[in-house]
Amino acid sequence: MTSILLPESEAELEAIVHEAAASRSPLAIHGGGTRDIGRPVQAARILSTQAMTGITLYEPTELVIAARPGTRLSEIEAALAQNRQRLAFEPIDYRPLLGAHGEPTIGGVTASNASGPRRIQAGAARDHLIGVRAVTGRGETIKSGGRVMKNVTGYDFVKLLAGSWGTLGVMTEVTYKLLPEAETETTLVIEGLSAERAVEAMAAALGTPFEITGAAHIPGAPSRTYLRFEGFAASCSYRAERLRAMLRPFGAAEAVEHADSRAIWRSIRDVEPLRAAHDEVVWRISVKPSDGPAIGAKLAFALDSRLLYDWAGGLVWATAPAKGDGGAEIVRAAVALVGGHATLIRAPFALRAAVPVFQPETAGVAAISKKIKATFDPSGVLNPGRVS
After folding, report:
1. Does the keyword Hydrolase apply (predicted)?
2. Domains of the chain
């Protein structure tokens, strides 16, 4: 029977991991239960951070917030909203795609380096993470970075921990820099473009001085291409008219504003158009934007994939049949030709256990990863096998 460990303090967490390392007893690291991604972890005990909650620092004037890992993302966003501030990287909520029912936590956001459509303009979670405390696989607490942006001590460990999926350390506190909330937003929508033509339109828009914060394309009948900009109302109105005129060769653009625009991007952020059926898996593919349409076309032909293009075509979400290898051979062969990478985001338990979920590393990168893992978790007790 699997037991669940719920430490409430850093000291309790240290003791649990130290004992696990000494006995070489693996731990499955869990947060809010909304990001069951990666290979299944074989462990008799679950170490959950759900009891380690609370905002530990919030300085609105300094645009900095710190919180314990089990703090719900909704709690953080509510606190920021009171001061019209936000996490700039627009973290994806995987629940619609994965059918999960937990609550996203700031620890899970950090461990998965979550980011949404605004990444093309603001970067990912790791680009805004300025400090972290974590218990390594040795049962030792490491502090890296700080609570003010001028402190960059240990910057590399901050970057390493973001996106490590709980394999290098269990976070006990994270600190993020913030940005002011935009007064409003406007999205231009162009219907009927092919994926290739949509990428051209998105690239043209990103090449303007109008600070595009979202660029996505959803194939369909008709297809829709979305371009978002944010800021003061007068500025958005001006940019909408200028961009409309510039994009006229691609077709007429309709402007969607305020709450309606936010609803569009929330759906794109959470990949809601590709809510997978039980007989489908979902791949997340990262390539150069110019290569996105060709990758999509190959998968649509070979796997009958349904597609969503984000990040101006550089992020391709694709479905595939949930049988055999879930399209892994075809997806990875297509991606290898253009130097991208692919992650199997949604798949049945048995399929995730049978094929590499994350992009296989080259020999050189694998050797570096092994050394890093050995440094922070020499006994291999933190989420063993999850990213292998």
Report:
1. no
2. 1-181+359-388 (3.30.465.10), 184-269 (3.30.70.260), 276-354 (3.30.70.240)
